[in-house]
Amino acid sequence: MAMAAASGRHVVAVPYPGRGHINPMLVVCRQLAAADAGLAVTVVVTEEWHALLAAAGVPATLPDRVRLATIPNVIPSEHGRGADWVGFFEAVHAKMGEPVERLLDRLEPRPDAVVVDTYLTWGVAAGAARGIPVCSLWTMPATFFLALYHMDLWPPVDGPEGGEGQSCKSLDQYIPFPVLSSVKCSDIKILRSLAMELPMKRVAQVFSNLRKAQCVLFASVYELESGAINGIAQVLPCPIYTVGPSIPHMSLEGNSDKIRHEKYSDWLDAQPKNSVLYVSFGSHVSMPSSQLEAFAMGLHDSAVRFFWVARDKAVTTTLQQISGDKGLVVPWCDQLKVLSHPSVGGFLSHCGWNSTMEAVFAGVPVLASPVGWDQLVNARLVADEWKIGINSREQRREDGIVSRATISAAVTKLMDLADGDSLELRRRAEELRGASRSAIQEGGSSWRSLRSFARDLAKGKLNVVETSQ
Fold first, then answer.
1. Are 251 and 340 in contact (CB under 8 A)?
2. Contact assessment for residue 118 and residue 210, using Cβ atoms and an 8 Å cutoff
3. Residue 106, Cα to own-chain centre: how many angstroms?
4. Widest CA span of the chain, in angstroms?
5. For the CA atoms of the chain, what is the radius of gyration?
6. Which of 44, 193, 17, 219 has its CA nearest to residue 119?
7. In the prediction, which pLDDT does 161 show?
8. Shortest CA distance to 340 belongs to which of 254, 438, 222?
9. Which residues face 210 on adjacent strands?
10. Rounded to whole angstroms, how far apart are CA atoms 103 and 107?
């Protein structure tokens, strides 16, 4: 089923079935294969995801020692999960584990280790039942991990501390880690709502199981989240390795400023340096139509050039009508290459972790518009911790919408190259760009950490019998 390298070492990787999880898992697998020439990797995806990856040409770009294997489509389709992500999460919990375990049992050679997405509730148990070391991959910020790990210490939603005053408090007042000072109680309040009761029950199960894993990999950069990573090292009973940014930076090597064979490349090439605001709210974000319209009209009012990725055809047509000759609306693009284009000077983003890391890697300041989950914490990191952007969520009206006028003003400020605050954001973004790129270069923090992980794996230091208590 999978071809192992000459030494016979074989790692199986199982990502959570979503673009924001599969993409970083594939990057980690590429890096792991590059770090250890004696290792073969089998990446397990659903049949639907195999077809999606094949349509994007991904299998052809994978190293020879990284292969894809499939399980049946036992979960809802990727195309509809945004409408019921809670139901999708529950289906992954209830239905995906069994076919993955059957695959593990018939893979040859037998896996020496399994790298599973942390959100796969059954992942650690599946490995433990077979005596296979389990390495958990966390594809979100370490800061969010630290907050979730201590969810039992979160303040109550109701009662004397459940009002507006409590919502403004920093989480470090309840959890003894100074690094959580930029995270507000309001950022995790939504996770305590009735609608989130079942997902959070699963998350609690995830973190309970995680304590039995042999190690945890973080798709982050030590220099960006040193406080959180040090804090996690204090509380986890297993080794941790920071291997990020787990983004497709390989595509930039040798040709970072050029985007070839794309219809939009000529438009970008024709724009002045740092004049274009790149706009994308990710592949799986549910945003009210009224908010989407406010963004579009706010951009129009600002008169700033923009490049908007909108996957819905009806939305694309409407946005293009609004934008006129100041903007370009496309259904898809190579995001990291676009962010790295000289004409792009800002990023209006939902602040998913992959998008946030790509903005950092490209050195582009961010106008954050988070919707939920880790995005709220990511936006805090961007605006308050790293100081490379503006958090528009802070300026919502009572109905939860950021107004057209507010958006126009924020876009204008972010993209004004003569504005002192904007220049400072750009200076900081350039600093973090250097830090994130240095981390993956030879001798950098992530480079060393990944090789340490590969070495520990090869030497059997992560074996179940050696780490289980």
1. no
2. yes
3. 31
4. 64
5. 22
6. 17
7. 42
8. 254
9. none
10. 6
| E strands, 118-201, in order | 134-138
Tokens of 147: 């907050």
- The answer to whether the beta carbons of residues 266 and 337 sit under 8 Å apart is no
Residue identified by tokens 């079935």 is 17
Q: Which residue has the tokens 């400023």?
A: 257
DSSP bridge partners of 42: 12, 67
Ramachandran angles phi, psi of 217, nearest 5°: -100, 140
Residues in the chain: 469
- List C-alpha distances in Å: 265 to 94, 118, 352, 384, 430: 44, 37, 25, 34, 24
Give residue 162's pLDDT. Answer: 44
Q: Distance between CA 138 and CA 241 in Å, rounded?
A: 10
Q: How confident is the model at residue 469 (pLDDT cuts 50, 70, 90)?
A: very low
Q: What is the DSSP string of 318-355?
A: HHHHHHGGGEEEES---HHHHHTSTTEEEEEE---HHH
How far is the C-alpha of 17 from the C-alpha of 331, rounded, in Å? 22
Contacts of 307 (CB under 8 A, 6+ apart): 264, 267, 268, 276, 277, 278, 279, 327, 328, 330, 333, 338, 344
Reading the block at residue 94, the tokens are 């209830």
DSSP 183: S
Give the lowest-confidence range in 14-23, 78-87, 372-381: 78-87
In 10 A of CB 348, how many CB atoms? 26
Closest CA to 246 of 1, 429, 439, 411: 439
Measured distance CA(153)–CA(168) in Å, rounded: 17
Measure the CA–CA gap between 251 and 256, rounded to whole angstroms.
Answer: 8
pTM above the 0.70 mark? yes
pLDDT at 160: 44
> What is d(CA 267, CA 304) in angstroms, rounded to the nearest whole number?
15
> In terms of Cα–Cα distance, which of 102, 157, 377, 136 is closest to 238?
136
Q: Distance between CA 242 and CA 225 in Å, rounded?
A: 10
HEC letters along 347-416: EEECCCHHHHHHHHHHCCCEEECCCCCCHHHHHHHHHHHCCCEEEHHHHCCCCCCCCHHHHHHHHHHHHC
